[in-house]
Amino acid sequence: MNYTKLLFSLVFSLVAFAVFGQNGRQGQPTPPRPVLQQPAPQQPAQQRPRQGQTEKVPVDLQQADSLIGGNFNGQRIDKLIGNVIFKQKDGTLYADSVYQYKEKNVLEAFGNVRINQADTVNITGQRATYNGDTRTANIIGDVVMRDPRMTLTTPSLDYNLDTRTANYTEGGVIVDPENRLESRRGAYNTKTKMFDFQQDVKVKTADYDIKAQNMRYNTLTKVVYFQGPTFIEGQQGDLYAEEGTYNTITKISNFGRNAYILTDEYRLGGDKLFYNQNTGYGYAEKNVSLRALKDDVTIRGQIGRYWRDKGEAKVYGKPVMETIMEGDTLFLSADTLYSREPKGAITASMIFAYPNVKIFKSDLQGKADSLSYNRTDSIMHMNVKPVLWNEESQLVADTIHIQLRNQTIDRMYMYSNAFIVSEDSLKNYNQVKGRDMTAFFHDGDIRRVNVNGNGESLYFALEGDTVLTGMNKAICSDMILKFAENKLKTISFLMQPDASFVPPHELNEESKQLEGFAWLSQLRPTKQQVLSTQQPAAVQAPPVKKEPAAKPAGNKKAAPRKKNRQ
Protein backbone atom coordinates (compact mmCIF):
# COMPACT_ATOMS: atom_id res chain seq x y z
CA MET A 1 0.00 0.00 0.00
CA ASN A 2 2.84 2.37 0.84
CA TYR A 3 4.54 1.54 -2.44
CA THR A 4 1.37 2.41 -4.31
CA LYS A 5 1.17 5.87 -2.67
CA LEU A 6 4.85 6.51 -3.44
CA LEU A 7 4.33 5.58 -7.08
CA PHE A 8 1.38 8.02 -7.50
CA SER A 9 3.43 10.79 -5.85
CA LEU A 10 6.33 10.32 -8.28
CA VAL A 11 3.98 10.34 -11.29
CA PHE A 12 2.29 13.62 -10.10
CA SER A 13 5.67 15.30 -9.61
CA LEU A 14 6.84 14.28 -13.09
CA VAL A 15 3.65 15.65 -14.65
CA ALA A 16 3.97 18.98 -12.81
CA PHE A 17 7.60 19.28 -13.85
CA ALA A 18 6.69 18.60 -17.48
CA VAL A 19 3.96 21.25 -17.48
CA PHE A 20 5.70 24.13 -15.66
CA GLY A 21 9.40 23.52 -15.91
CA GLN A 22 10.17 22.05 -19.31
CA ASN A 23 12.35 24.39 -21.42
CA GLY A 24 12.38 22.31 -24.55
CA ARG A 25 15.02 20.00 -25.81
CA GLN A 26 18.42 21.50 -26.65
CA GLY A 27 18.51 22.83 -30.21
CA GLN A 28 14.76 22.62 -30.71
CA PRO A 29 12.15 25.39 -30.25
CA THR A 30 10.10 25.24 -27.09
CA PRO A 31 6.59 24.07 -27.83
CA PRO A 32 3.81 26.37 -26.69
CA ARG A 33 2.63 25.77 -23.17
CA PRO A 34 -0.95 24.65 -22.76
CA VAL A 35 -3.21 27.07 -20.97
CA LEU A 36 -5.18 25.17 -18.39
CA GLN A 37 -8.54 26.65 -17.61
CA GLN A 38 -10.65 25.50 -14.73
CA PRO A 39 -14.36 26.20 -14.48
CA ALA A 40 -14.90 29.11 -12.10
CA PRO A 41 -16.74 28.08 -8.98
CA GLN A 42 -20.28 29.39 -8.81
CA GLN A 43 -20.60 32.36 -6.46
CA PRO A 44 -22.94 32.14 -3.56
CA ALA A 45 -26.10 34.17 -4.08
CA GLN A 46 -25.07 36.82 -1.53
CA GLN A 47 -21.70 37.42 -3.32
CA ARG A 48 -23.01 37.78 -6.84
CA PRO A 49 -22.96 41.34 -8.25
CA ARG A 50 -26.21 43.18 -7.89
CA GLN A 51 -28.17 44.44 -10.85
CA GLY A 52 -26.45 47.50 -12.38
CA GLN A 53 -23.01 46.60 -10.95
CA THR A 54 -20.11 45.64 -13.22
CA GLU A 55 -18.88 42.10 -12.75
CA LYS A 56 -15.20 41.91 -11.84
CA VAL A 57 -12.93 40.68 -14.59
CA PRO A 58 -10.38 38.10 -13.44
CA VAL A 59 -6.64 38.57 -13.88
CA ASP A 60 -5.61 35.69 -16.12
CA LEU A 61 -2.23 34.00 -16.11
CA GLN A 62 -0.87 33.82 -19.64
CA GLN A 63 2.57 32.38 -19.08
CA ALA A 64 5.09 31.30 -16.44
CA ASP A 65 8.11 29.00 -16.36
CA SER A 66 7.17 27.47 -13.02
CA LEU A 67 4.55 27.65 -10.31
CA ILE A 68 4.72 26.97 -6.63
CA GLY A 69 1.42 27.08 -4.80
CA GLY A 70 0.50 26.91 -1.16
CA ASN A 71 -0.74 28.68 1.94
CA PHE A 72 1.64 31.20 3.49
CA ASN A 73 0.71 32.96 6.73
CA GLY A 74 -2.83 31.80 6.25
CA GLN A 75 -3.12 33.16 2.70
CA ARG A 76 -3.42 31.28 -0.56
CA ILE A 77 -0.46 32.40 -2.68
CA ASP A 78 0.77 31.15 -6.03
CA LYS A 79 4.44 31.91 -6.71
CA LEU A 80 5.07 32.17 -10.46
CA ILE A 81 8.69 32.30 -11.54
CA GLY A 82 10.28 33.08 -14.91
CA ASN A 83 8.80 35.05 -17.85
CA VAL A 84 5.52 35.68 -16.08
CA ILE A 85 2.66 37.28 -18.02
CA PHE A 86 -0.76 38.26 -16.67
CA LYS A 87 -3.57 39.91 -18.64
CA GLN A 88 -6.77 41.74 -17.70
CA LYS A 89 -8.86 43.48 -20.37
CA ASP A 90 -6.51 45.75 -22.35
CA GLY A 91 -3.75 45.63 -19.72
CA THR A 92 -0.84 43.21 -19.60
CA LEU A 93 1.72 42.74 -16.80
CA TYR A 94 5.18 41.24 -17.37
CA ALA A 95 7.72 40.33 -14.66
CA ASP A 96 10.49 37.91 -13.69
CA SER A 97 8.32 36.61 -10.84
CA VAL A 98 4.88 37.25 -9.40
CA TYR A 99 3.10 36.44 -6.16
CA GLN A 100 -0.60 35.96 -6.85
CA TYR A 101 -2.98 36.48 -3.92
CA LYS A 102 -6.10 34.87 -5.33
CA GLU A 103 -8.39 35.68 -2.44
CA LYS A 104 -7.51 39.40 -2.71
CA ASN A 105 -7.15 39.40 -6.50
CA VAL A 106 -3.78 41.10 -6.00
CA LEU A 107 -0.46 40.56 -7.77
CA GLU A 108 3.02 41.40 -6.47
CA ALA A 109 5.52 41.56 -9.31
CA PHE A 110 9.31 41.54 -9.01
CA GLY A 111 12.17 42.18 -11.45
CA ASN A 112 11.90 43.77 -14.91
CA VAL A 113 8.30 44.70 -14.31
CA ARG A 114 6.41 46.07 -17.29
CA ILE A 115 2.77 47.13 -17.66
CA ASN A 116 1.35 47.69 -21.12
CA GLN A 117 -2.07 49.11 -21.89
CA ALA A 118 -3.60 49.05 -25.37
CA ASP A 119 -0.13 48.99 -26.91
CA THR A 120 0.18 52.77 -26.28
CA VAL A 121 1.19 53.13 -22.61
CA ASN A 122 4.24 51.29 -21.30
CA ILE A 123 5.42 51.48 -17.68
CA THR A 124 8.59 49.75 -16.42
CA GLY A 125 10.03 49.42 -12.92
CA GLN A 126 11.63 47.03 -10.44
CA ARG A 127 8.56 46.13 -8.39
CA ALA A 128 4.81 46.53 -8.68
CA THR A 129 1.60 45.78 -6.81
CA TYR A 130 -1.48 45.32 -8.97
CA ASN A 131 -5.06 45.20 -7.68
CA GLY A 132 -7.31 43.40 -10.12
CA ASP A 133 -10.51 44.65 -8.51
CA THR A 134 -9.65 48.37 -8.79
CA ARG A 135 -7.32 47.91 -11.79
CA THR A 136 -4.67 50.06 -10.12
CA ALA A 137 -0.92 49.52 -10.02
CA ASN A 138 1.81 50.90 -7.77
CA ILE A 139 5.20 50.67 -9.46
CA ILE A 140 8.48 51.48 -7.67
CA GLY A 141 12.16 51.51 -8.51
CA ASP A 142 13.48 53.44 -11.55
CA VAL A 143 10.02 53.83 -13.01
CA VAL A 144 9.76 54.86 -16.66
CA MET A 145 6.41 55.59 -18.29
CA ARG A 146 6.17 56.06 -22.05
CA ASP A 147 3.41 56.92 -24.46
CA PRO A 148 3.79 58.06 -28.09
CA ARG A 149 4.24 61.72 -26.99
CA MET A 150 6.43 61.71 -23.88
CA THR A 151 8.64 59.82 -21.42
CA LEU A 152 8.22 60.11 -17.64
CA THR A 153 10.84 58.95 -15.13
CA THR A 154 10.17 58.84 -11.39
CA PRO A 155 11.07 56.73 -8.32
CA SER A 156 7.48 55.53 -7.90
CA LEU A 157 4.19 55.76 -9.76
CA ASP A 158 0.50 54.99 -9.20
CA TYR A 159 -1.40 54.10 -12.38
CA ASN A 160 -5.14 53.51 -12.85
CA LEU A 161 -5.93 51.45 -15.93
CA ASP A 162 -9.64 52.38 -15.87
CA THR A 163 -9.15 56.17 -15.80
CA ARG A 164 -5.76 55.85 -17.51
CA THR A 165 -4.20 58.36 -15.11
CA ALA A 166 -0.78 58.28 -13.49
CA ASN A 167 0.33 60.02 -10.26
CA TYR A 168 3.76 60.53 -8.69
CA THR A 169 4.77 62.17 -5.40
CA GLU A 170 8.54 61.67 -5.20
CA GLY A 171 9.63 63.87 -8.09
CA GLY A 172 9.37 63.24 -11.81
CA VAL A 173 10.93 64.31 -15.09
CA ILE A 174 8.94 64.46 -18.33
CA VAL A 175 10.70 64.69 -21.68
CA ASP A 176 9.10 65.15 -25.09
CA PRO A 177 10.74 66.14 -28.39
CA GLU A 178 10.45 69.86 -27.59
CA ASN A 179 10.59 70.29 -23.82
CA ARG A 180 11.81 68.95 -20.49
CA LEU A 181 9.56 69.30 -17.43
CA GLU A 182 10.04 68.30 -13.81
CA SER A 183 8.19 68.70 -10.53
CA ARG A 184 7.92 67.24 -7.06
CA ARG A 185 4.38 65.93 -7.59
CA GLY A 186 2.36 65.37 -10.73
CA ALA A 187 -0.47 63.62 -12.52
CA TYR A 188 -0.85 62.56 -16.15
CA ASN A 189 -4.02 61.69 -18.01
CA THR A 190 -3.17 59.53 -21.02
CA LYS A 191 -6.60 60.21 -22.54
CA THR A 192 -6.45 64.02 -22.53
CA LYS A 193 -2.63 64.09 -22.69
CA MET A 194 -2.69 66.63 -19.85
CA PHE A 195 -0.07 66.83 -17.10
CA ASP A 196 -0.78 68.52 -13.76
CA PHE A 197 2.40 69.61 -11.97
CA GLN A 198 2.70 70.75 -8.38
CA GLN A 199 5.57 71.96 -6.22
CA ASP A 200 8.94 73.09 -7.60
CA VAL A 201 7.90 72.94 -11.24
CA LYS A 202 10.62 73.54 -13.84
CA VAL A 203 10.26 73.59 -17.62
CA LYS A 204 13.11 73.90 -20.08
CA THR A 205 12.40 74.73 -23.71
CA ALA A 206 14.69 75.76 -26.54
CA ASP A 207 14.04 79.42 -25.68
CA TYR A 208 12.89 79.63 -22.05
CA ASP A 209 13.40 78.27 -18.56
CA ILE A 210 10.11 78.26 -16.63
CA LYS A 211 9.71 78.02 -12.85
CA ALA A 212 6.37 77.70 -11.03
CA GLN A 213 4.60 76.01 -8.14
CA ASN A 214 1.51 74.88 -10.06
CA MET A 215 1.28 74.26 -13.77
CA ARG A 216 -0.44 72.14 -16.41
CA TYR A 217 1.00 70.93 -19.69
CA ASN A 218 -0.67 69.34 -22.71
CA THR A 219 1.70 66.93 -24.44
CA LEU A 220 -0.50 67.03 -27.55
CA THR A 221 -0.78 70.81 -28.07
CA LYS A 222 2.47 71.65 -26.21
CA VAL A 223 0.64 74.41 -24.32
CA VAL A 224 1.67 75.28 -20.74
CA TYR A 225 -1.06 76.53 -18.35
CA PHE A 226 -0.07 78.59 -15.29
CA GLN A 227 -1.80 78.87 -11.93
CA GLY A 228 0.20 80.90 -9.41
CA PRO A 229 3.46 82.89 -9.62
CA THR A 230 5.40 81.80 -12.71
CA PHE A 231 8.80 83.01 -13.93
CA ILE A 232 9.89 82.52 -17.55
CA GLU A 233 13.52 83.33 -18.33
CA GLY A 234 14.68 83.67 -21.94
CA GLN A 235 17.61 84.97 -23.93
CA GLN A 236 15.56 87.80 -25.44
CA GLY A 237 13.63 88.72 -22.32
CA ASP A 238 11.88 87.38 -19.24
CA LEU A 239 8.18 86.95 -18.49
CA TYR A 240 6.21 86.76 -15.27
CA ALA A 241 2.57 85.94 -14.66
CA GLU A 242 0.24 84.49 -12.05
CA GLU A 243 -2.11 82.86 -14.55
CA GLY A 244 -2.22 82.27 -18.29
CA THR A 245 -0.84 80.10 -21.08
CA TYR A 246 2.36 79.71 -23.09
CA ASN A 247 2.48 77.76 -26.36
CA THR A 248 5.93 76.18 -26.63
CA ILE A 249 5.45 75.63 -30.38
CA THR A 250 4.10 79.02 -31.54
CA LYS A 251 5.90 80.81 -28.68
CA ILE A 252 2.81 82.91 -27.95
CA SER A 253 1.93 83.87 -24.37
CA ASN A 254 -1.41 84.98 -22.94
CA PHE A 255 -0.99 85.97 -19.29
CA GLY A 256 -3.10 87.49 -16.55
CA ARG A 257 -2.73 88.90 -13.03
CA ASN A 258 0.37 91.03 -12.48
CA ALA A 259 2.00 89.88 -15.72
CA TYR A 260 5.03 91.60 -17.26
CA ILE A 261 7.66 91.37 -20.01
CA LEU A 262 11.23 92.23 -19.01
CA THR A 263 13.92 93.07 -21.60
CA ASP A 264 17.18 95.00 -21.43
CA GLU A 265 15.31 98.21 -22.28
CA TYR A 266 11.78 97.84 -20.92
CA ARG A 267 9.51 96.28 -18.36
CA LEU A 268 5.93 96.12 -19.73
CA GLY A 269 3.24 94.85 -17.38
CA GLY A 270 -0.53 94.70 -17.00
CA ASP A 271 -3.44 92.63 -15.75
CA LYS A 272 -3.62 91.07 -19.22
CA LEU A 273 -0.56 90.45 -21.34
CA PHE A 274 -0.10 89.03 -24.85
CA TYR A 275 3.40 88.37 -26.21
CA ASN A 276 4.60 86.76 -29.43
CA GLN A 277 8.22 85.78 -29.05
CA ASN A 278 8.66 85.17 -32.80
CA THR A 279 7.66 88.71 -33.79
CA GLY A 280 8.68 90.36 -30.52
CA TYR A 281 5.27 92.04 -30.24
CA GLY A 282 3.69 92.53 -26.82
CA TYR A 283 0.30 93.90 -25.81
CA ALA A 284 -0.79 94.77 -22.25
CA GLU A 285 -4.22 95.74 -20.98
CA LYS A 286 -5.55 97.17 -17.68
CA ASN A 287 -3.24 98.77 -15.12
CA VAL A 288 -0.45 98.93 -17.70
CA SER A 289 3.03 99.90 -16.55
CA LEU A 290 5.90 100.56 -18.98
CA ARG A 291 9.29 101.26 -17.43
CA ALA A 292 12.35 102.38 -19.37
CA LEU A 293 15.09 100.75 -17.31
CA LYS A 294 18.05 102.80 -18.49
CA ASP A 295 16.44 106.13 -17.52
CA ASP A 296 14.21 104.92 -14.69
CA VAL A 297 11.17 106.39 -16.45
CA THR A 298 7.80 104.74 -15.79
CA ILE A 299 4.65 105.18 -17.90
CA ARG A 300 1.27 103.98 -16.61
CA GLY A 301 -1.95 103.66 -18.58
CA GLN A 302 -4.70 101.29 -19.70
CA ILE A 303 -3.33 99.88 -22.98
CA GLY A 304 0.30 99.24 -23.88
CA ARG A 305 2.05 97.94 -26.98
CA TYR A 306 5.66 96.84 -27.40
CA TRP A 307 7.77 96.05 -30.49
CA ARG A 308 10.98 94.37 -29.41
CA ASP A 309 12.85 94.49 -32.73
CA LYS A 310 12.00 98.17 -33.25
CA GLY A 311 12.72 99.07 -29.63
CA GLU A 312 9.40 100.92 -29.51
CA ALA A 313 6.54 101.02 -27.01
CA LYS A 314 3.26 102.95 -26.77
CA VAL A 315 0.83 103.47 -23.91
CA TYR A 316 -2.76 104.70 -24.36
CA GLY A 317 -5.71 105.42 -22.09
CA LYS A 318 -4.67 108.67 -20.38
CA PRO A 319 -1.12 107.49 -19.67
CA VAL A 320 1.08 109.17 -17.08
CA MET A 321 4.89 109.24 -17.12
CA GLU A 322 6.86 109.39 -13.88
CA THR A 323 10.53 110.26 -13.51
CA ILE A 324 12.70 111.58 -10.70
CA MET A 325 14.10 115.09 -11.14
CA GLU A 326 15.93 117.08 -8.47
CA GLY A 327 14.88 114.53 -5.87
CA ASP A 328 11.25 115.15 -6.78
CA THR A 329 8.84 113.26 -9.05
CA LEU A 330 7.84 114.80 -12.36
CA PHE A 331 4.48 113.59 -13.71
CA LEU A 332 3.61 113.95 -17.39
CA SER A 333 0.30 112.96 -18.98
CA ALA A 334 -1.06 112.91 -22.54
CA ASP A 335 -3.48 110.93 -24.69
CA THR A 336 -0.56 108.83 -26.01
CA LEU A 337 2.97 108.27 -24.74
CA TYR A 338 5.46 106.69 -27.13
CA SER A 339 8.97 105.49 -26.25
CA ARG A 340 11.71 104.70 -28.78
CA GLU A 341 15.11 103.20 -28.12
CA PRO A 342 18.14 104.26 -30.22
CA LYS A 343 19.06 102.21 -33.29
CA GLY A 344 22.68 102.84 -34.05
CA ALA A 345 24.81 105.87 -33.22
CA ILE A 346 22.77 108.40 -35.21
CA THR A 347 19.44 107.99 -33.38
CA ALA A 348 18.53 109.04 -29.86
CA SER A 349 16.46 107.51 -27.09
CA MET A 350 13.16 109.39 -27.23
CA ILE A 351 9.79 109.74 -25.49
CA PHE A 352 6.93 111.42 -27.38
CA ALA A 353 3.73 112.69 -25.75
CA TYR A 354 0.67 113.86 -27.72
CA PRO A 355 -1.81 115.48 -27.62
CA ASN A 356 -3.06 117.30 -24.48
CA VAL A 357 0.25 117.23 -22.65
CA LYS A 358 0.27 118.20 -18.97
CA ILE A 359 3.23 118.38 -16.58
CA PHE A 360 3.28 118.52 -12.81
CA LYS A 361 6.24 118.85 -10.46
CA SER A 362 6.11 120.52 -7.07
CA ASP A 363 7.90 123.60 -8.44
CA LEU A 364 7.08 123.31 -12.15
CA GLN A 365 3.81 122.86 -14.05
CA GLY A 366 3.13 123.02 -17.77
CA LYS A 367 0.93 122.20 -20.73
CA ALA A 368 1.35 121.88 -24.48
CA ASP A 369 -0.15 120.10 -27.45
CA SER A 370 2.86 117.80 -27.87
CA LEU A 371 6.18 117.06 -26.21
CA SER A 372 9.30 115.11 -27.07
CA TYR A 373 11.98 114.12 -24.56
CA ASN A 374 15.45 113.29 -25.89
CA ARG A 375 16.77 111.02 -23.15
CA THR A 376 20.16 110.76 -24.86
CA ASP A 377 20.81 114.52 -24.76
CA SER A 378 18.49 115.22 -21.79
CA ILE A 379 16.45 117.81 -23.70
CA MET A 380 12.66 118.20 -23.48
CA HIS A 381 10.89 119.91 -26.40
CA MET A 382 7.41 121.44 -25.86
CA ASN A 383 5.54 122.34 -29.04
CA VAL A 384 2.30 124.12 -30.04
CA LYS A 385 1.20 126.68 -27.46
CA PRO A 386 3.45 125.55 -24.62
CA VAL A 387 3.05 127.17 -21.19
CA LEU A 388 5.18 126.64 -18.07
CA TRP A 389 4.67 127.86 -14.53
CA ASN A 390 7.49 128.11 -12.01
CA GLU A 391 6.14 129.25 -8.65
CA GLU A 392 4.75 132.77 -9.41
CA SER A 393 6.16 133.00 -12.95
CA GLN A 394 4.49 132.05 -16.21
CA LEU A 395 6.55 131.33 -19.35
CA VAL A 396 5.07 131.23 -22.87
CA ALA A 397 6.60 130.86 -26.35
CA ASP A 398 5.90 129.16 -29.67
CA THR A 399 8.40 126.44 -28.71
CA ILE A 400 10.11 125.71 -25.39
CA HIS A 401 13.17 123.49 -24.94
CA ILE A 402 14.24 122.39 -21.46
CA GLN A 403 17.84 121.31 -20.94
CA LEU A 404 18.37 118.85 -18.05
CA ARG A 405 21.61 118.08 -16.26
CA ASN A 406 21.82 115.24 -13.74
CA GLN A 407 18.00 114.98 -13.86
CA THR A 408 17.75 118.68 -12.90
CA ILE A 409 16.49 121.59 -15.00
CA ASP A 410 19.56 123.56 -16.03
CA ARG A 411 18.37 125.86 -18.85
CA MET A 412 15.21 126.69 -20.74
CA TYR A 413 15.17 127.99 -24.30
CA MET A 414 12.09 129.93 -25.43
CA TYR A 415 11.85 130.46 -29.19
CA SER A 416 9.58 132.97 -30.98
CA ASN A 417 7.12 135.23 -29.16
CA ALA A 418 8.65 134.52 -25.77
CA PHE A 419 6.70 136.04 -22.90
CA ILE A 420 7.34 135.88 -19.14
CA VAL A 421 4.83 137.08 -16.55
CA SER A 422 5.50 137.22 -12.82
CA GLU A 423 2.83 138.05 -10.26
CA ASP A 424 3.87 140.22 -7.34
CA SER A 425 2.43 140.49 -3.82
CA LEU A 426 -0.12 143.13 -4.94
CA LYS A 427 -1.43 141.05 -7.84
CA ASN A 428 0.43 143.15 -10.39
CA TYR A 429 1.94 141.33 -13.35
CA ASN A 430 5.56 142.08 -14.18
CA GLN A 431 5.98 141.32 -17.89
CA VAL A 432 8.87 140.77 -20.27
CA LYS A 433 8.55 139.81 -23.93
CA GLY A 434 11.01 139.32 -26.74
CA ARG A 435 11.86 137.29 -29.81
CA ASP A 436 13.78 134.57 -27.93
CA MET A 437 14.72 134.01 -24.30
CA THR A 438 17.08 131.76 -22.36
CA ALA A 439 16.25 131.02 -18.71
CA PHE A 440 18.89 129.74 -16.27
CA PHE A 441 17.89 127.63 -13.25
CA HIS A 442 19.55 126.72 -9.99
CA ASP A 443 18.10 124.06 -7.68
CA GLY A 444 14.90 124.17 -9.71
CA ASP A 445 14.35 127.94 -9.43
CA ILE A 446 14.72 130.62 -12.12
CA ARG A 447 17.75 132.80 -11.41
CA ARG A 448 18.32 134.67 -14.68
CA VAL A 449 16.62 135.22 -18.05
CA ASN A 450 18.37 136.59 -21.14
CA VAL A 451 16.09 138.36 -23.65
CA ASN A 452 17.42 138.30 -27.20
CA GLY A 453 15.75 140.68 -29.67
CA ASN A 454 12.66 142.89 -29.60
CA GLY A 455 12.67 143.18 -25.84
CA GLU A 456 9.89 144.97 -23.93
CA SER A 457 9.23 145.08 -20.22
CA LEU A 458 6.78 146.28 -17.59
CA TYR A 459 8.01 146.27 -14.03
CA PHE A 460 5.98 147.45 -11.01
CA ALA A 461 7.96 149.20 -8.29
CA LEU A 462 6.88 148.38 -4.74
CA GLU A 463 7.80 149.74 -1.38
CA GLY A 464 8.07 147.02 1.19
CA ASP A 465 6.00 144.65 -0.99
CA THR A 466 2.89 146.50 0.16
CA VAL A 467 2.81 149.91 -1.56
CA LEU A 468 2.89 150.51 -5.33
CA THR A 469 5.15 153.45 -6.19
CA GLY A 470 4.89 153.27 -9.97
CA MET A 471 5.58 151.23 -13.08
CA ASN A 472 8.76 151.07 -15.19
CA LYS A 473 8.19 150.57 -18.90
CA ALA A 474 11.12 149.95 -21.23
CA ILE A 475 11.85 148.90 -24.79
CA CYS A 476 15.28 147.41 -25.42
CA SER A 477 16.47 144.80 -27.87
CA ASP A 478 18.39 142.72 -25.29
CA MET A 479 17.82 142.47 -21.55
CA ILE A 480 18.84 140.45 -18.51
CA LEU A 481 16.25 139.60 -15.86
CA LYS A 482 17.32 138.48 -12.41
CA PHE A 483 15.09 136.59 -10.01
CA ALA A 484 15.26 135.91 -6.29
CA GLU A 485 12.89 133.77 -4.28
CA ASN A 486 11.11 133.03 -7.58
CA LYS A 487 10.24 136.70 -8.07
CA LEU A 488 11.51 139.20 -10.63
CA LYS A 489 13.89 141.55 -8.83
CA THR A 490 15.86 143.54 -11.43
CA ILE A 491 16.00 144.19 -15.19
CA SER A 492 19.25 145.13 -16.85
CA PHE A 493 19.35 146.66 -20.35
CA LEU A 494 22.29 145.75 -22.58
CA MET A 495 21.65 148.68 -24.90
CA GLN A 496 20.26 152.16 -24.33
CA PRO A 497 16.54 151.55 -23.60
CA ASP A 498 13.53 153.65 -24.42
CA ALA A 499 12.27 153.81 -20.85
CA SER A 500 9.64 155.65 -18.87
CA PHE A 501 8.27 155.67 -15.34
CA VAL A 502 4.51 155.88 -14.85
CA PRO A 503 3.23 156.98 -11.41
CA PRO A 504 0.34 155.05 -9.85
CA HIS A 505 -2.32 157.68 -10.51
CA GLU A 506 -1.62 157.57 -14.26
CA LEU A 507 -1.95 153.80 -14.55
CA ASN A 508 -4.94 152.17 -16.24
CA GLU A 509 -5.67 148.59 -17.23
CA GLU A 510 -4.46 149.03 -20.79
CA SER A 511 -1.14 150.55 -19.71
CA LYS A 512 -0.54 147.63 -17.31
CA GLN A 513 -0.32 145.09 -20.14
CA LEU A 514 2.07 144.49 -23.01
CA GLU A 515 0.60 143.38 -26.31
CA GLY A 516 -0.02 139.63 -26.22
CA PHE A 517 -0.35 139.46 -22.42
CA ALA A 518 -2.50 136.61 -21.03
CA TRP A 519 -2.50 135.28 -17.48
CA LEU A 520 -3.37 131.58 -17.93
CA SER A 521 -3.63 130.40 -14.36
CA GLN A 522 -6.94 128.63 -15.15
CA LEU A 523 -4.95 126.26 -17.40
CA ARG A 524 -2.30 125.51 -14.79
CA PRO A 525 -2.54 121.75 -14.13
CA THR A 526 -2.77 120.31 -10.64
CA LYS A 527 -1.31 116.99 -9.59
CA GLN A 528 -4.79 115.50 -9.40
CA GLN A 529 -5.52 116.55 -12.99
CA VAL A 530 -2.30 115.05 -14.30
CA LEU A 531 -2.77 111.77 -12.45
CA SER A 532 -6.49 111.45 -13.28
CA THR A 533 -7.25 108.45 -15.48
CA GLN A 534 -9.98 107.66 -17.94
CA GLN A 535 -11.09 104.52 -19.74
CA PRO A 536 -8.83 103.38 -22.61
CA ALA A 537 -9.39 104.95 -25.97
CA ALA A 538 -10.98 102.84 -28.71
CA VAL A 539 -7.92 101.33 -30.39
CA GLN A 540 -7.56 98.14 -32.35
CA ALA A 541 -6.47 95.32 -30.06
CA PRO A 542 -4.64 92.04 -30.79
CA PRO A 543 -6.27 88.70 -30.00
CA VAL A 544 -6.79 89.60 -26.35
CA LYS A 545 -10.40 90.10 -25.33
CA LYS A 546 -10.98 93.70 -24.30
CA GLU A 547 -13.82 95.46 -22.56
CA PRO A 548 -15.76 98.25 -24.35
CA ALA A 549 -14.18 101.66 -23.96
CA ALA A 550 -16.09 104.22 -21.92
CA LYS A 551 -16.58 107.80 -23.01
CA PRO A 552 -13.81 110.12 -21.82
CA ALA A 553 -14.64 112.31 -18.86
CA GLY A 554 -15.10 116.03 -19.54
CA ASN A 555 -12.16 118.35 -18.90
CA LYS A 556 -12.37 120.44 -15.77
CA LYS A 557 -10.61 123.75 -15.38
CA ALA A 558 -8.71 124.21 -12.17
CA ALA A 559 -8.92 127.40 -10.16
CA PRO A 560 -5.70 129.42 -9.91
CA ARG A 561 -3.37 128.06 -7.28
CA LYS A 562 -0.01 129.33 -6.20
CA LYS A 563 1.85 126.94 -3.98
CA ASN A 564 1.63 123.42 -2.64
CA ARG A 565 -0.39 122.22 -5.66
CA GLN A 566 -0.78 118.70 -4.39
Automatic annotation (TrEMBL):
Q: Does the keyword Iron apply?
A: no
Indicate whether Glycosyltransferase appears among the record's keywords.
no
Which residues belong to the signal peptide in this entry? 1-18
Q: Which residues form the Organic solvent tolerance-like N-terminal domain?
A: 59-212
Entry-linked Gene3D superfamilies = Lipopolysaccharide (LPS) transport protein A like domain
Keywords noted in UniProt: Cell outer membrane, Membrane, Signal
GO CC terms of this entry: cell outer membrane; transporter complex
What superkingdom does the record give? Answer: Bacteria
Its recorded name reads Organic solvent tolerance-like N-terminal domain-containing protein
Q: Where is this region: Disordered?
A: 25-57, 529-566
User: Organism source for this protein?
Assistant: Pontibacter korlensis
Pfam families named in the record: OstA_2
List the biased-composition ranges (Low complexity). Answer: 35-51, 534-543
